[in-house]
Amino acid sequence: MAPALSPTRSHHVAVIGAGPAGLVAARELRREGHSVVVFEKQKQVGGTWIYTDEVESDPLSVDPTRSVVHSSVYRSLRINGTRECTGYRDFPFVVRSGVSRDPRRFPSHGEVLAYLKDFAKEFGIEEMVRFETEVVKVSPAAEEGIGKWRIESTEKEKKVRRDEIYDAVVVCNGHYVEPRHAEIPGLSSWPGKEMHSHNYRIPEPFRDKVVVLIGNSSSAEDISRDIARVAKEVHVACRSNPADTFIKQTGYNNLWTHSMIESVHEDGSVVYQNGKTISVDIIMHCTGYKYHFPFLDTNGIVTVDDNRVGPLYKDVFPPAFAPSLSFIGIPWQVLPFPMFELQSKWIAGVLSGRIPLPSKEDMMIEIKTFYSTLEVQGIPKRYTHRMGNTQFEYDNWLASQCGCSETEEWRKEMCLANGVRKEAHPETYRDEWDDHHLVSEAYQDFSLYS
Ligand code: FAD
């Protein structure tokens, strides 16, 4: 077994970030008896769900000196999963009575933010948060004792700088801030405008333009339709589409899906693998994000390599530092909030010594075995943390460690059914559904918490 800090002891724990992960981490750590300080660089809780019209000065978000805008949320964004599946397990995302907000089953981003504020209020989280305080460096502080961490932070536009020692650090800084870009032959001499979806807010700047979006994520799906209302033409290019793909989207006379771009040229043209050539004004990279921990200094023990954060036992603990350093929210293609809740419970219980961890050696063996399995299956490193349907097995494993009930059957079935509906009816899945029996089951469960 790895040396737990001190069995059933409470610790002084720093949580970095007050988004959905940091909020539930703070609640679970305090429930377990730890003392908690949450560092949050913004003025309020909610993380990515704090919509802002502001965008970065560099539309591609590559300039390292740019001032970073945290949220990538666009104005028209509605959640892509049902509200029943989206909420934390024991604080359901129901329409709260007496408050007129967005009662839709797939509400707008503002409703998620309001829900997170309700959560923070209900559990008194804000009293643990230091707002407008950015963590600038996290490093091991061995001279202060085994497993201790030094946290350097700056408050209110760098006017106050603090240097403090904590027993443990839980990293919840969000992973949709540092963009990834597509590499396309000819881009350096292509005369058009390039941007990343991180800096997309509203369709108006695209009026009468010819726009290419690269990617097949929810963002590319939503933004292409948003823009098609005003743009001259919208073309979506995606590397996972077969080379001959060329599909006009039903319901639109200006929206097409293509295979990937082959090259771009000095005359402004874009050539696709399907043989089409189109003169384009703007290319928008909807190509996702990189894990980024600019404050973390572990002497190269924890690294990000081709978007693999490692080594991490069960996507949470780096064995060399377990249990005093942990990460919440690394897996993707998941239902994030319920998973954050279970990861938080696990971390809190492991830190207090109530839940045992395997030895560092055994954790490393498991991680290496997992990496080998991915390699044998031909899965690239950058997909290490993609879960999809295996999320439920993972969540249930966490639940078993924490002594909690497994993922509710309705949540699993609803999530899978929504995925199928989204794929088949991207236009309408947020407003038309037929899983009423699952909704009833969900609300029966929710009545336990109201
Ligand atoms: P975040 O919400 O990003 O919060 C991280 C927090 O850490 C922020 O408040 C940030 O200010 C703070 N922080 C970062 N660095 C520091 C530092 N150094 N010091 C102090 N504070 C720091 N999920 C869904 O469930 N449904 C959806 O429909 C959905 N749609 C999405 C659409 C878009 C465009 C994006 C980008 C994401 C979407 N997601 C969706 C995923 C979403 O990111 C998660 O739901 C969730 O917000 C992640 O929570 P988090 O706490 O890990 O990160």
TrEMBL record:
The name under which this protein is listed is: Flavin-containing monooxygenase
Query: Which cofactors?
Result: FAD
Q: Has UniProt tagged this entry with the keyword Mitochondrion?
A: no
- Give the species this sequence originates from: Arabidopsis thaliana x Arabidopsis arenosa
Listed A to Z, the keywords are: FAD, Flavoprotein, Monooxygenase, NADP, Oxidoreductase
Q: Which InterPro entries match?
A: Flavin_mOase, Flavin_mOase-like, FMO-like
Question: What terms describe the molecular function in GO for this protein?
Answer: flavin adenine dinucleotide binding; N,N-dimethylaniline monooxygenase activity; NADP binding
Family from the record:
Belongs to the FMO family.
A Pfam family recorded for this sequence:
FMO-like
**E.C. no:** 1.-.-.-
Query: Which EC class is the enzyme in?
Result: oxidoreductase
